[in-house]
């Protein structure tokens, strides 16, 4: 009977109908070394991901943002205030944008093509794009899906906890935004908000994440 069905229908459709669907977990990761996989591994995969890529690149050490010999994961506490674009629900944070300009000056100009800036909010993305040259990759979380870069700078923007059910507290969106990096991840935001609220606290409260204040960067 199964053979007759397969003759006229897609094999997967029949397998689903009969309950004979083999499940294979794909746990090997090639995008980044273990230390860079760790944030989203503990957030969404219960530590099951296994990186096949060796450690070895330390770009944040090279420019003096963190000490040598530790994971290239950095949370920068930025003072500021979220603002809402008139007649919309999208947010921006001018202090975060201003600091981002200072931060980018730390990077050699030839690294530009290796940097991806991810914004949680479209208005933040729009304002950043208008201030940067076109060589920088600036994306929203949605448009960043499926893409990756050596260095990711994540702009979280919010300074006030939203009501439950917003995309700020979306587990999936958080996972997408912290899994695009190959060599380094920098998260900009209000540390007191990110460290005390899910899902972000799972990412930033790890012992592998260095935390500094924006005014420590000269």
TrEMBL record:
GO terms for molecular function: 5'-3' DNA helicase activity; ATP binding; hydrolase activity. Residues 16-191 form the DNA2/NAM7 helicase-like C-terminal domain. Keywords: ATP-binding, Helicase, Hydrolase, Nucleotide-binding. InterPro entries: Coronavir_polyprotein_1ab, DNA2/NAM7-like_C, P-loop_NTPase, SF1_C_Upf1. Gene3D superfamilies: P-loop containing nucleotide triphosphate hydrolases (3.40.50.300). This is DNA2/NAM7 helicase-like C-terminal domain-containing protein. It comes from Pristionchus entomophagus.
């Amino acid at each position: 009977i199964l053979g007759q069905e397969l003759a006229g229908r897609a094999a997967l459709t029949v397998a689903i109908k009969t309950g004979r669907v083999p499940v294979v977990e794909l746990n090997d990761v090639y995008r980044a070394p273990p230390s860079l996989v760790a944030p989203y591994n503990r957030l969404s995969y219960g530590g099951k991901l296994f990186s096949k890529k060796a450690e070895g690149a330390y770009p944040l050490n090279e420019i003096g943002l963190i000490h040598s010999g530790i994971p290239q994961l950095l949370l920068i506490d930025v003072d500021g205030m979220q603002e809402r674009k008139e007649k919309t629900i999208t947010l921006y944070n001018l202090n975060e944008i201003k600091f981002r300009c200072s931060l980018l000056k730390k990077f050699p100009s030839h690294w530009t093509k290796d940097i991806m800036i991810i914004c949680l909010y479209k208005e933040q993305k729009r304002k950043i794009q208008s201030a940067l040259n076109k060589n920088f990759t600036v994306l929203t979380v949605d448009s960043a899906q499926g893409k990756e870069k050596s260095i990711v700078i994540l702009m979280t923007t919010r300074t006030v906890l939203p009501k439950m059910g917003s995309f700020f507290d979306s587990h999936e969106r958080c996972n997408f935004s912290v899994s695009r990096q190959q060599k380094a991840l920098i998260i900009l935001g209000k540390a007191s908000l990110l460290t005390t609220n899910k899902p972000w606290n799972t990412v930033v409260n790890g012992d592998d994440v260095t935390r500094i204040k924006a005014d420590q960067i000269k």
